[in-house]
Amino acid sequence: MTNTATASFTVDGWDPQTTDKAEGTEFSRVRLAKTFTGDVEGTSAVEMLTAVNDTSSAYVAFERLAVSVDGRKGGFVLHHSAGEHGHHLIVLPGSGHGELAGITGTAEIVQDDEGNHTFTLTYEL
């Protein structure tokens, strides 16, 4: 059975470090931290790699969540990829633990005009 959990989150830390800049494209590594409230409660730590130039940008990231989802405590890892063709978040197979062991699914992040983030997790457990 497919479930949906929705939460808001804040970015509590953002630590970018440029690792390379050549031929007009900059590579950076970013570490960030988030706090979730709603159907998903808890925190996460993110390791992100970005590539940015004057006309485009893209990133890949892994996000380790220590959360409860619909009251089930545990965690899992999200694999992010984003670029010209959209933003994709997938639960890394086999990464669920605690009461979230065996979780599979996808997620979506939407930011409103005021900068507030909404996180929607569509999952099976």
From TrEMBL:
SUPFAM superfamilies: SO1590-like
Protein name (Swiss-Prot/TrEMBL): DUF3224 domain-containing protein
Cross-referenced Pfam families: DUF3224
Lineage per the UniProt record: Bacteria, Bacillati, Actinomycetota, Actinomycetes, Pseudonocardiales
Organism field: Amycolatopsis coloradensis
Database matches in Gene3D superfamilies: SO1590-like (2.40.350.10)
InterPro entries hit by this protein: DUF3224, SO1590-like_sf
Stretches the record annotates as Disordered: 1-22
